[in-house]
Amino acid sequence: MNDDTRQQIADLLRAGHSDLAIHRHTGAARATVARYRKQLGLPGYLTTADSPSCRHGHPFPQNRGWNEKGHLICLECRRRIDSARYQPTPRQAKESGPRQRHWEPVQPDPIAIERAIAGNPPERLTPRERHAAIRQLDRRQYSAAAIAERVQCSPRTVHRARSRGVVA
């Protein structure tokens, strides 16, 4: 590392930038930036009382606060951390209504199921498609060996599906 990079890291540290921001800007390892911060006597994660801004650049007099341990913190940074980590309590979740689903369960392909029932399954059946075909063949009173032959799986898979209650 050349002297210009070292000076640039020191200037950015004195300006209150985070180790991660300096790492991204200069390309120096985060451990190296932390070592320079320690050599300069600057705090790692907390800001000093006379700083004009926090290490992320938020104006400090307007956002000054103290955490539960009495350390000086930036309220804007704290709000961002808390909003990223926010998990509603069970009571809050109950009051706000049911949680929204972020995904839809995959529906089995009815054509693949029909082909499996006819004894000509596609090369790869999903587990849901396989269990749906097993369920329908079991309703038709096929034996485990006959179902396994049609769906092209092992008889153990059929027995396992039956024991799990998948088959109605």
Q: Topology, please?
A:
Layout: H1 3-14, H2 19-26, H3 30-40, H4 60-63, E1 64-66, E2 72-74, H5 75-85, H6 90-96, H7 110-118, H8 127-139, H9 144-151, H10 155-163
Antiparallel strand pairs: 1-2
Helix pairs in contact: 1-3, 2-3, 7-8, 8-9, 9-10
Please write the string of helix (H) and strand (E) elements: HHHHEEHHHHHH
Tally of discrete structural domains: 3
Q: Can you list the strand order of the major beta sheet?
A: 1-2
Parts with pLDDT < 50 across at least 5 consecutive residues: none
Which structural class matches the secondary elements? mainly alpha
Mean pLDDT: 79
Number of H- or I-type helical stretches: 10
The shape is elongated
Describe the structure.
The protein is mainly alpha-helical. The chain has three domains: 1-44; 45-87, no CATH class; 110-163. The protein has ten helices and two strands. It has helices at residues 3-14, 19-26, 30-40, 60-63, 75-85, 90-96, 110-118, 127-139, 144-151, 155-163; strands spanning 64-66, 72-74. It has a two-stranded antiparallel sheet with strand order 1-2. The termini are far apart. The mean pLDDT is 79.
Short description:
This protein is mainly alpha-helical. The protein has helices at 3-14, 19-26, 30-40, 60-63, 75-85, 90-96, 110-118, 127-139, 144-151, 155-163; strands spanning 64-66, 72-74.
Supply database-style keywords.
168 residues, two-stranded antiparallel sheet, mainly alpha, 10 helices, 4% strand
